[in-house]
Amino acid sequence: MFDQTTEVSGSPVVSGMFGRNPVFRDIITANPEMEKIFHVIEKVAGTNSTVLILGDSGTGKELIARALHDLSGVSGPFVPVNCGAIPDNLLESELFGHEKGAFTGAISSKPGRFMLANNGTIFLDEIGEMTPNLQVKLLRVLQERVIEPVGGVKSQPVNVRVIAATNVNLWEKVQEGSFREDLYYRLQVVPIELPSLSERPEDITILANHFSHEYALQNNRRPLVFSPEVLQVFGRYRWPGNIREFENLIERLTILVDGDAVYVEHLPRYLCEQSDVDGFDWRSSELPEDGLDFNSVVDSFENSLIMQALERTKGNKKAAAELLNLNRTTLVEKIKKKGIGVKRDEEETQLKAAR
């Protein structure tokens, strides 16, 4: 069996995590950049300054926001809102509340999320999806600390800490004219930029063991142990879905792998295809001294680009083709020829059956 002593959650713990504030217990990391972020949170927590968390999907933006709230010591609740998941015509009422008769179906007054978060923290995820009209209302909240419910004629004071988050470049949206510049500066009083999982190589084994123990408990089985080759594949893969994608994979392996050990053959094909071929990192400009298999490397690179585009567009082939500047038909043909996604679909079917 393989030697893996770097574990968490009831097992040996990373030395750098000793002495860390308990508020950060749910954020599993030994990454120096993440440690710097913890120090920023500790400094900012006691203030009422607005915080903007930047990072790709799956990097743990809500965990950071919750930690900031928990450390602040405020008496009110933590209220998360995914601005991208609520239809535009409902988001205003959801955030600011509405008065009776404000619109069809408004049979009674209802407080919004801002009022529910009074004396606490509101977390506005996917802030870049907010419409210009709502941006104006949010700007007023930040400037005057008041809200106005839909259909209301009187402003209501509110004492709430605003933490916003986005996985898009807000400054680019400002340049395009789809996001207000004054709101942009109001939001990013304290910006916190989260690194992607591919920028946290020291966390791969730690997280693998953490999730392995977590899902072993849930499934009443022994934790998985990962072969060195598997950990190498994990380390070379780009993880476009970041920690969320990694956690889902460990859950899948926990359910589908019969023994305790995980070998490369247990991994999804797309994971190995996107990893470096024969130890060659195609992101590096250096050619190995003993040469390489050109066709394999090019094929791996192409597979990786296609998979990243599909991940980013949630499987939308038309959007993925536009992202790659390809004709949709060409992309579909490449996907079929390479079998991209086929193995993944098979595993999802097995996973559902196992549940």
Written description of the protein model:
By secondary structure, the chain is of the alpha/beta class. The protein folds into 2 domains: 32-194, P-loop containing nucleotide triphosphate hydrolases (Rossmann fold), CATH 3.40.50.300; 199-354, Orthogonal Bundle (Helicase, Ruva Protein, domain 3), CATH 1.10.8.60. It has helices spanning 32-44, 61-72, 88-96, 113-116, 132-144, 170-176, 181-187, 204-218, 228-236, 242-256, 269-274, 294-312, 317-323, 328-338, 342-354, and strands spanning 51-54, 78-82, 120-125, 146-147, 156-157, 160-166, 190-193, 225-226, 261-262. The strands form 3 sheets. Strands 2-3-6-1-7 form a 5-stranded parallel β-sheet. The protein is globular. Mean pLDDT is 85; it is low at 5-16 and 342-352.
Helices and strands in order:
Layout: H1 32-44, E1 51-54, H2 61-72, E2 78-82, H3 88-96, H4 113-116, E3 120-125, H5 132-144, E4 146-147, E5 156-157, E6 160-166, H6 170-176, H7 181-187, E7 190-193, H8 204-218, E8 225-226, H9 228-236, H10 242-256, E9 261-262, H11 269-274, H12 294-312, H13 317-323, H14 328-338, H15 342-354
Parallel strand pairs: 1-6, 1-7, 2-3, 3-6, 8-9
Antiparallel strand pairs: 4-5
Helix pairs in contact: 5-7, 8-10, 12-13, 13-14
In a nutshell, what does this entry contain?
The chain is α/β, with parallel strands linked by helices and 355 residues long.
